[in-house]
């Protein structure tokens, strides 16, 4: 806005303090404080998908004082004071002075850059943060880059290979030096050095630099020739393989979530293979194990328990809970199961005390929240649906429940709410709202009735509520409610307690004064408001309690069971309270009755230490008794008494970052299950770090909410669940999927395959490059150490590009050691990755020894066979090239487990391609090796050599492989045989067996 | 060798059988009735039909036996072929120097005034059937030395002066203003000892044609490239070439330019197209021109018949026999091991998790 007129401006030109007008569906260019909107009450709806991924509309308010002013018509001057730019997208503090009045500004008055304005024709605001100072930009830090463990190990091996390379070059140069020394006298006359012109005695030095420099040059030359030893191409092929693997992971229909139409997402491309080595899984509970679809289940009102009955939904009660507004029918969007008795009672309310309580109870449910009702059109013009948009799923569930019982929230502005109570519209003034915060664990609303009475409704977690409830009043009801609460939470339900209080005029005035003061304070407003809230939320009269079912996701218990069979330790880190956590633990089969539970629940460091030490002693006993080596915890625990450790956030505060960490880790590593409840987001990361720091085992964190982000980023592998709690977790994750149970196919099938494939591929690439280098090296020993190469330059260049690259990439993407069915049937097979069976030092050295042997065969068979013959460099070079390429491909072929047509094509194809390339190179007359391949291939010796090389080189590997597989079979090997054996039986006999349903993931 | 999972006939049934598979999901189901999409779907789900060989004792033992049965006869055949070759090797570089000059070989070879004529008498051990190949053999020559191998210009050999970039030929790239044809150390050091053979009174006819590869003569060495300024420099390396013969007909040069792979090598000189009987004595008149003394090289003359395998070389036969017997032995060892200590196939009892639980 310039000179009282709005002008179009580019985003980058917007400056702090300017007044910005935004039309509907436009994106906000900077963080603005709302002044006025098209809505007369000053409400603006914004969509924050770009910011936190949540697609529901959020409401933002313009202050009433500025809403009235129209900037086009009247000038006004104001001053806004606010915090320095920071990252917190959920908080904002500031105040505004307009016309001498001080107005407080909070996070509900600011609209952040990246949001979109919806359902509002226009909004006018003052820019407060621009450009890089906007909260969206400040939050734009990339996720920390992760590197796969396999790659880290591989780098060690590559260092080894570099040492080896240097050694080869040094040997070459030392030998060259010795050769030069011993032929010192002849150098003058040798054709290739010719220092001296012997016919006329004149000195002429032909590129002879003295033997010091000659050695240096030899060294450098050999570095150039042997540098293939360091498999640079491996990095490229690994990337390609990972892309291929990611493609198949994304396409896997087992990990396709039909409910949300979301596929598996691979957000990180460099840690695919880590999925095959996971040892610890850290899981969030809400939204991860559970669906985070809250369902109102039970209510305890005034000490009486009303539980929803299953049958009631079928009777079509949704028709009854509708409201008429201007001739249109409003219905809540979601249907809720209702309890018939309670429904009847709530209808015939107001007559007795019981009815009054029920009335207050549901009024509290409908009013005491931050839900925004949105009216959505349906195909039937007379029927409209009310969609409750809110940040907390619990509140949504409660609001829908209230609507189902006839207390339908229809309208909410910052000043009042309209509730349709059994067809009668009632308007309440919202005098004050204390939002939920995690310290108080409750929220309250102060409603002004039309008859000027003022009531306070409070809703909150049971522990925090019971402490503020006046125990002298209705002690029996309190006791009854507590019993109900206990039984609810033991069913795994989430409980909330509702309380209320009639405020007297003096109490209200006192509160009002304090509230006004606190809400305009600039510094420490949150704390002040909290204090005000705690003061007023006191001596409440209990109304009742609600229980909401947090439904477990499909297949969670089975998934957890197979994860544990696979030797993966599942730790659940949740913000829920201990009882809920334990009950979810039981329902998800994480905890079983046979387990010994160790509960650590203490309030200071000393008792923590005591608890830990007791627990340690306790945990050692069963292990010592069963005398099973502790190297395989998953199974030894299954044999002895398994221990479950349950620890709460308060204890963790004392344990983490102190010397007790060590003891906790020791204890935790002996437990088969660890449940941490009441943990803060940062503590989650702390626990992950605790394990990550102390073991080399891989950790995986899975979660769905913003509170899991730190944990997801800390763990070796972070998995995000695209659930209800927004997309921050997905944004921070390496892999994202729709359901917890997809973890099973992800780890057991894809993780396993990826690990096996990549592990093999790395070893194979080392071998593939080392063998050609060794062949080149052996030849150097026969050329007076002058690094001549028999294999021509083109061939050695194409070697790692055309001759051998495709098979390793395709095999790395497509080969499967075991079928999906077997892998899911025997989760124990996953142990191969945890034990690092596919890639380890031993395997590396064995392969290198094999490489050494194979290179010797490849080189020396032709050498001796052609010794003292007329063979020329190009012919024998072609023989070496072909035999190395065929050998390397056959070596790979020998290790391929499943031959499908792609693999056939690529293996035989690359051999054919090599032959063609060699022929083409030899068909160029200006190359010295012209026609060599055709001339040598015409002789029998060439083919005999080729045959002899291939057989002799592969024999030891074949024999060792067989012996190893037959007498020291790995689990994978046995399962592979079992798989084949079973299939043979099927083919030979009854074909029906093959048709039996293949379990998709764990059976549900 | 059996097929893995879905052949196209079972695909439909299998697709139905997977519970929880997204039924409405466009690409998967509606179209999977057409076989192309079904195949694509199977590909995406990594369910391509595949065969999965497993090493069973039977196949492994059979493989080793087969190898034995292939390699032992092969070894015997190649050894026989190698033994049928008759070979006469005569080292003449020392013997051809007059006694008094043997202490100073360099003087002998560099002094043009000293006669290089030399006669050798070779006794034929067994009857040799034509064609008898004549090779000269140079030991310790290192024709594969890096600096030597590079010192040539293949374009020039084909196109003559049309190609002027002779930098690779240093130090023998040009004489005066024109590049030397053929340039480079290899050509410069072309072998120039000559041999004449007679048996009794009659001279043995030596065929010096077609000793180089036909491909080289026809396509690699130019038919109109003449060595007009070859060996004109102050330093003479090896033989001279007839400036009136095109390179494509200079077969000695062509043979020499095929640089040998190994430090000791033979090169074909010619063929005697007559049979030689046992105990014949062949007189060789040779011109000992080539300087191999300066670097301790050895010069040998080789007369050899040929078999289908090439020259005399026992290595391959011995190696084959060795591989063959080794395979046989291994197959027997494996057989014994298998009989004595068999492991049931695919028995889950052997998996680590079952072993663990049964042991405790």
Automatic annotation (TrEMBL), chain A:
* Compartments, as annotated in UniProt: Membrane
| Name of the featured protein | Phospholipid-transporting ATPase
Gene responsible for this protein: LOC107462806
Q: Which cofactor does it need?
A: Mg(2+)
What are the UniProt keywords, alphabetically? ATP-binding, Magnesium, Membrane, Metal-binding, Nucleotide-binding, Translocase, Transmembrane, Transmembrane helix
Q: What is its EC number?
A: 7.6.2.1
Name the membrane topology term.
Answer: Multi-pass membrane protein
Q: GO biological process annotations for this chain's record?
A: phospholipid translocation
Query: Which parts of the chain span the membrane according to its record?
Result: 156-180, 215-236, 766-785, 797-814, 843-867, 873-894, 901-924, 930-955
Automatic annotation (TrEMBL), chain B:
**Which InterPro entries does the entry link to?**
CDC50/LEM3_fam
Query: Where is it predominantly found?
Result: membrane
Asked if the record carries the keyword Transmembrane helix, the reply is: yes
Q: Which spans are transmembrane here?
A: 54-76, 315-337
> What Pfam family does this protein match (any one)?
CDC50
Q: Where in the cell is it found?
A: Membrane
One GO term of the cellular component aspect?
A: endoplasmic reticulum
Entry keywords, A to Z: Membrane, Transmembrane, Transmembrane helix
Note whether Transmembrane occurs among the keywords.
yes
What PANTHER family is this protein classified in? ALA-INTERACTING SUBUNIT 2-RELATED, CELL CYCLE CONTROL PROTEIN 50
Q: Which family is it part of?
A: Belongs to the CDC50/LEM3 family.
What name goes with this protein?
ALA-interacting subunit
The source organism is Arachis duranensis
From which lineage does this chain's organism come? Eukaryota, Viridiplantae, Streptophyta, Embryophyta, Tracheophyta
Gene that specifies this protein: LOC107479220
């Amino acid at each position: 806005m310039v000179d009282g007129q709005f002008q179009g401006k580019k985003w980058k030109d917007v400056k702090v303090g300017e007044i910005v007008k935004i039309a509907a569906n436009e994106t906000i260019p900077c963080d603005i404080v709302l002044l006025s909107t098209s809505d007369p009450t000053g409400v603006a709806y914004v969509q924050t998908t770009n910011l936190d991924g949540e697609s529901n509309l959020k409401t933002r308010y313009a202050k009433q004082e500025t809403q009235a002013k129209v900037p086009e018509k009247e000038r006004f001057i104001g001053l806004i004071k606010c915090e320095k730019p920071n990252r917190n997208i959920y908080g904002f503090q500031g105040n505004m002075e307009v016309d001498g009045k001080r107005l407080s500004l909070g996070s509900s008055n600011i609209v952040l850059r990246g949001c979109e304005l919806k359902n509002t024709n226009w909004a006018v605001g003052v820019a407060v943060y621009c450009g890089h100072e906007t909260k969206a930009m400040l939050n734009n830090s990339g996720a920390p880059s992760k590197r796969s463990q396999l790659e880290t190990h591989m780098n060690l091996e590559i260092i080894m290979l570099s040492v080896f390379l240097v050694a080869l070059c040094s040997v070459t140069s030392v030998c060259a030096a010795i050769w030069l020394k011993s032929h010192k006298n002849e150098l003058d006359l040798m054709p290739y050095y010719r220092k001296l012109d012997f016919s006329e005695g004149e000195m002429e030095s032909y590129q002879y630099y003295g033997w010091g420099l000659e050695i240096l040059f030899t060294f450098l030359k050999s570095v150039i020739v042997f540098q293939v030893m360091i498999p640079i191409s491996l990095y490229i092929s690994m990337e390609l393989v990972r892309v291929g693997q990611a493609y198949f992971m994304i396409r896997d229909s087992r990990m396709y979530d039909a409910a949300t139409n979301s596929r598996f997402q691979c957000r990180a491309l460099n840690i695919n293979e880590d999925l095959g080595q996971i040892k610890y899984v850290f899981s969030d509970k809400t939204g991860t194990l559970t669906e985070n679809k809250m369902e109102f289940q039970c209510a305890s009102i005034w000490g009486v328990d009303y539980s929803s009955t299953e049958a009631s939904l079928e009777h079509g009660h949704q028709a009854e809970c509708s409201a008429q507004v201007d001739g249109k029918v409003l219905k809540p969007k979601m249907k809720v199961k209702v309890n018939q008795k309670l429904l009847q009672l709530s209808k015939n309310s107001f007559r007795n005390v019981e009815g009054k309580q029920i009335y207050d109870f549901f009024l509290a449910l409908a009013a005491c929240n931050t839900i925004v009702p949105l009216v959505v059109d349906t195909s039937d013009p007379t029927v409209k649906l009310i969609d409750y948009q809110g940040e907390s799923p619990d509140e949504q569930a409660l609001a829908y429940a209230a609507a189902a019982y006839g207390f339908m929230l229809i309208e909410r502005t910052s000043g009042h709410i309209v509730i349709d109570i059994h067809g009668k519209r009632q308007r309440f003034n919202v005098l004050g709202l204390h939002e939920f915060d995690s310290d108080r664990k409750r929220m309250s609303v102060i409603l002004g009735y039309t008859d000027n009475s003022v009531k306070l409704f409070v809703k909150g977690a049971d522990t925090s509520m019971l402490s503020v409830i006046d125990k002298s009043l209705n002690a029996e009801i309190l006791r009854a409610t507590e019993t109900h609460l206990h039984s609810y939470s033991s069913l795994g339900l989430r409980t909330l307690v509702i309380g209320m209080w009639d405020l007297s005029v003096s109490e209200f005035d006192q509160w009002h004064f304090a509230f006004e003061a606190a809400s305009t304070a600039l510094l420490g407003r949150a704390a002040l408001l909290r204090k005000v809230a705690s003061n007023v939320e006191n001596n409440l009269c209990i109304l009742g309690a609600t229980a909401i079912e947090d439904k477990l996701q499909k297949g969670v218990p089975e998934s957890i069971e197979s994860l544990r069979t696979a030797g993966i330790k599942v730790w659940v880190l949740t913000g829920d309270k201990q009882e809920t956590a334990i009950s979810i633990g039981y329902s998800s089969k994480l905890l079983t009755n046979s387990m010994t539970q160790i509960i650590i629940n203490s309030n200071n460091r000393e008792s923590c230490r005591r608890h830990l030490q007791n627990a340690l002693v306790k945990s050692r006993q069963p292990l010592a008794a069963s005398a099973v080596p502790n190297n395989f915890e998953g199974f030894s625990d299954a044999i002895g008494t398994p221990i479950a450790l349950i620890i709460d956030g308060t204890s963790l505060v004392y344990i983490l970052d102190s010397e007790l960490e060590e003891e906790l880790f020791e204890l935790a590593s002996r437990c088969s299950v660890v449940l941490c409840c009441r943990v803060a987001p940062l503590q989650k990361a702390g626990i992950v770090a605790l394990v990550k720091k102390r073991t080399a085992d891989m950790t995986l964190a899975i979660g769905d909410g913003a509170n899991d982000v730190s944990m997801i980023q800390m763990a070796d592998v972070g998995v995000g669940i695209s659930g209800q709690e927004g997309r921050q977790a997905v944004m921070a994750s390496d892999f994202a999927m729709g359901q917890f149970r997809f973890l099973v196919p992800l780890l057991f099938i894809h993780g396993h395959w990826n690990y096996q494939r990549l592990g093999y591929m790395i070893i194979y690439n080392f071998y593939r490059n080392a063998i050609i280098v060794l062949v080149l090296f052996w030849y150097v020993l026969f050329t007076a150490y002058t690094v001549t190469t028999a294999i021509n330059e083109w061939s050695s260049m194409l070697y790692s590009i055309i001759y051998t690259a495709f098979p390793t990439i395709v095999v790395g993407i497509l080969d499967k050691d075991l079928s999906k069915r077997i892998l899911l049937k025997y989760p124990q097979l996953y142990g191969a990755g945890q034990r690092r069976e596919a890639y380890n030092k031993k395997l590396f050295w064995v392969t290198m020894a094999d490489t050494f042997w194979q290179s010797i065969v490849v080189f020396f068979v032709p050498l001796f066979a052609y010794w003292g013959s007329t063979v020329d460099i190009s012919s024998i070079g072609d023989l070496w090239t072909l035999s190395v390429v065929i050998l390397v491909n056959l070596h790979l072929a020998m290790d391929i487990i499943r031959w499908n047509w792609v693999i056939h094509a690529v293996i035989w194809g690359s051999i054919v391609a090599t032959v063609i390339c060699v022929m083409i190179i030899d068909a160029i007359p200006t190359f010295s090796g012209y026609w060599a391949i055709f001339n040598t291939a015409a002789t029998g010796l060439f083919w005999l050599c080729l045959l002899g090389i291939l057989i002799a080189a592969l024999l030891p590997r074949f024999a060792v492989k067989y012996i190893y597989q037959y007498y020291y079979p790995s689990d994978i090997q046995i399962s592979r045989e079992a798989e084949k054996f079973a299939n043979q039986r099927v083919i030979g006999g009854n074909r029906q067996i093959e048709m039996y349903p293949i379990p998709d993931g764990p059976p549900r | 060798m059996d097929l893995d999972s879905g052949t196209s006939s079972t695909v439909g049934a299998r697709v139905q059988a997977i519970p929880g598979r997204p039924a409405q999901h466009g690409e998967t189901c509606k179209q999977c009735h057409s076989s192309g999409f079904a195949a694509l779907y199977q590909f995406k789900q990594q369910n391509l039909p595949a065969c999965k060989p497993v090493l069973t004792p039977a196949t492994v033992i059979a493989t080793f036996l087969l190898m034995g049965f292939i390699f032992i006869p092969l070894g015997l055949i190649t050894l026989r072929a190698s033994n049928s070759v008759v070979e006469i090797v005569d080292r003449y570089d020392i013997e051809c120097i007059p006694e008094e000059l043997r202490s100073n070989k360099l003087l002998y070879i560099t002094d043009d005034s000293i006669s290089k004529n030399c006669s050798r008498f070779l006794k034929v051990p067994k009857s040799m059937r034509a064609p008898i190949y004549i090779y000269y053999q140079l030991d310790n020559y290192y024709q594969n030395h890096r600096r030597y191998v590079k010192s040539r210009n293949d374009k020039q050999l084909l196109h003559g002066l049309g190609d002027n970039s002779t930098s690779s030929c240093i130090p023998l790239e040009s004489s005066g203003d024109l590049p030397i044809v053929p340039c480079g150390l290899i050509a410069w050091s072309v072998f120039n000892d000559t041999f004449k053979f007679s048996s009794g009174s009659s001279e043995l006819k030596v065929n010096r044609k077609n000793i180089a590869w036909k491909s080289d003569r026809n396509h690699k060495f130019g038919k109109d490239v003449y060595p007009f300024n070859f060996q004109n420099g102050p330093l003479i390396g090896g033989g001279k070439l007839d400036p009136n013969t095109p390179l494509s007909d200079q077969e000695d040069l062509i043979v020499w330019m095929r640089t040998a792979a190994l430090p000791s090598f033979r090169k074909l000189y010619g063929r005697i197209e007559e049979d030689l009987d046992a105990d014949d004595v062949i007189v060789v008149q040779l011109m000992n021109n080539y300087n191999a003394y300066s670097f301790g090289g050895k010069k040998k003359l080789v007369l050899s018949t040929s078999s289908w395998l090439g020259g005399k070389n026992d290595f391959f036969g011995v190696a084959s026999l060795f591989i063959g017997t080794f395979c046989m032995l291994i197959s027997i060892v494996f057989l014994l091991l298998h009989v004595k200590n068999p492991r049931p196939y695919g028995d889950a009892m052997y998996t680590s998790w079952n072993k663990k639980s049964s042991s405790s």
